[in-house]
Structures are given as structure tokens and as C-alpha cells.
Amino acid sequence: MAGNRINYFRENEHKSTYCHIMKRGPWRAVHFDWHFGVDQPEKERKGLITERLEIRSMAEKLNFTIYPSAKNILQTRNLTKPDFLRELHRFKELCASEPCGCILMTISSHGEIVKTDDQGGSESFEIFEDNILTHQDSSAFSRDDSRVPVREIIEVFRDRKLKPIPKIFFIQACRAEENSTTDVDTGIRVGYRQENEFQYQDDPLNRSHSTPYLENSVMIYSTPFGYSAGFSYRIGSHVWKVLQMTLKEILAQVPVIGPVNLLHWLKETNNRLAKSEEYEIDDIEYKPLLSICHTLTRNIIFDTNNN
């Protein structure tokens, strides 16, 4: 009877969690960030330093191995687009060529949504996708040539060897149009079918979001589509701070509630963030609320005692 019970729990674990896959190797993490603005030296941007430390703290508490190392930050900071993509591919190749049980990538940058080249032949709504901004040179932000679509970043990890491994992407960046006067997602037009003819309601809202797709992955944005993200020169990312606080509380309860469940952690973070309708930094409204989309088929469980 005891043997049957053990086999049942092992079989149930395989079906409901990624734990058996995550035991294949170390969990690997990488963080990329860029200066927010060019009018202040790095030493005056305490928020950027605080943010990096918060992300490192979360990764280490969950037993991730940080690329290239916890102390080497220059290799993944303030990169031009070619250097960023080169370093991104190096990290991916490490995960694909060496034992790896889970992938975590975090990005902190400016961001904006850009109308896609492929509009699917539709004249009734416009399709936008998320982009992050990189440095044109060692110190200045740039648009156009230095934009990197989030879709392109996710595609780097489309690899047969990485397909079964859970992949987690945290992105701290604005998700509004360049020089947008609104922080509200305008959505897409709502349609209805009448007899054999499809009709659109008289609704001017006609913007749609193109979401990248990757098996066994979860994408967590720091704000919903169409909103500005919250970052302060003094404290860094609002969302990273709340994520860290929530994780700290969950880990304090681990002997009682067991290992950390990723989706539970994200839900509890949103419970905190949703208590206020809006925030402002320098008179700019932003929405600190995690926007989550995933293709997970199981739960991601961080059993920090067994990794």
C-alpha cells in the first residue's frame, strides 16, 4: 500500500508540476537593464542600483544561478542592440548546452508599443506589439534602429532542447505609444454577427495587442498593455519592490505552506498592487499591476530545499 501511495504522488507531481523537469539541472537567470534617462550619472540613480539588488535577491532566494555572475553587472547593462542580442544568445546557448532546469530572464528598460508591419489585412483594427529600447551608443537611448521587439527576444529561446523547460520572463517597461497622451488601453472593436453578415458596433476603440507565443513559458509585464510603467530614480521599479516584499513573506511561511508556487506569488503580488487605482511619478500616471500571459501546462514550483 505504501509503495502504491508513493507512486501515485510521483505520478501526480509529473502531471501537475514541472518539478521533475526542473530537477534536470541548475536554474539559470539573467538580468538586463539600461539607465533611465541620460541627464544624471549612475551614482545619482539610486533606483537603478536598488532595482538590480532586489532582482538579484529574489533570484538568489529561489536558488537561481545568475549569468554571468551575481557581481558582474557590466556585461548585461546599458548594451547597444547588437551587444544585447549577442549576450542574449550567449545565455540561451548556455541554457541549451549545459544542464538547466528552469530559465528566468528579467528586463528593465524604456518601452513602447509599436504598430506591426503585418496587420493581417484588416482595416478594422490596428495590431501593436511591445518593444524595449536599447542604447544607440554607450550612453544614449534610441528609437527606431535600437528598438527590440519582445517577440524577437522570446524567439531566441525557441529551441528543441529548451522546449520542455519552464521559462519565465519579467519585463519592466512602459507599454504605451511614443509620446502617448493617454495611459489607457483602447482595446479592440467589439463585433457581433447578424444573420450572415458580421457587423461592428459603433465603438472607436480599435487597437489590438500581438502576444508572443512560446511553449512552457510565462511572460510577466509590470503594467497592462497601453499603460506607463512605474519607475523612480530614487526607489527603482514599484513592481519589483512589491514582488520582493511578497516573496519574502511567502518564504517566511514555507515550513507551513510548502514550496513557492510561481502563479500564487504573482497573484499575491497583484492583490497588493490592485489596492490603489493609480499612481503618479513626476505627474505621469502609471498602473502598477502585473499583466501575465502564459502557455504553462503545469505549475512552476520553486522547492528551494531540493534544488
UniProtKB/TrEMBL annotation:
Gene Ontology MF terms in the entry: cysteine-type endopeptidase activity
Coiled coil: none
Residue span(s) of domain Caspase family p20: 78-178
InterPro entries: Caspase-like_dom_sf, Caspase-related_regulators, Pept_C14_caspase, Pept_C14_p20
Gene3D superfamilies registered for this protein in UniProt: 3.40.50.1460
Any single biological process term in GO: proteolysis
Protein's name in the database: Caspase family p20 domain-containing protein
